[in-house]
Amino acid sequence: GQNIDQPTEMTATEGAIVQINCTYQTSGFNGLFWYQQHAGEAPTFLSYNVLDGLEEKGRFSSFLSRSKGYSYLLLKELQMKDSASYLCAVRDRDYKLSFGAGTTVTVRA
Amino acid sequence: GAGVSQSPSNKVTEKGKDVELRCDPISGHTALYWYRQSLGQGLEFLIYFQGNSAPDKSGLPSDRFSAERTGGSVSTLTIQRTQQEDSAVYLCASSLDLGGAYNEQFFGPGTRLTVL
Q1: Distances from the Cα of A39 to the Cα of A68, A102, B12, B27, angstroms
Q2: pLDDT in tens, B30-89
Q3: What does A26-44 look like in DSSP terms, one character per residue?
């Protein structure tokens, strides 16, 4: 099974940078995903990591260290619309995706 | 279709009744997943299908829950004798295939189930 931990809440100022950490324990690792979920809406895909290192995608970057069971999502040049919940999810070798409880990011002007 | 669709969007039912939730995945996606999200909680994996087959049903909360998929497309999640603790948003997702890189899951808008 999976055990996924991420902070519950984070607050940052518009234009700033925020880093959301995710640690996991898994019985079989087969990729890590980050999703964004606005209140009352379905999650939308942000990033995918399966090898160690940094994946950059515009203002969003995601990092993975498999040996440490650790990932982070970096949000740069924060905008008000980035206020949302960010979900870390780990896929196992049976293709099941286990989600963390999510980190609610609030961007303030 | 353009995206994953689910129906109904909202369902209010009385305790003890059966409900049926429907998911229509993106055309061509062979993998389909069901999740449950309770208020303020993370997503709880329920079951996935590869084609019409569900290899692992261990995520279903109880034997009151069942799911099927026919024709490799539409899936139905059925909850029998609903209980108040079944109240949640039920999300369906589909992906092109199960594994592989960037096999992201596309989520539907969800069905909000309220059991009175």
Answers
A1: 31, 12, 20, 27
A2: 999 999 998 877 889 999 998 888 888 888 999 999 999 988 899 999 999 999 999 999
A3: ESS---EEEEEE-TTS--E
- Residues B104 and B94: their CA atoms lie apart, in Å, by 8
Q: Is B91 helix (H, G, I), strand (E, B) or coil?
A: strand
B interface residues, A as partner, C-beta within 8 Å:
31, 33, 35, 41-45, 48, 50, 55-56, 59, 91, 98-99, 101-102, 104-110
CA A79, A83, A84, A90 torsion-angle sign:
positive
CB atoms within 10 A of CB A57: 11
Q: What percent of chain A has pLDDT over 90?
A: 80
Cβ-nearest to B107 among A42, A94, A96: A42
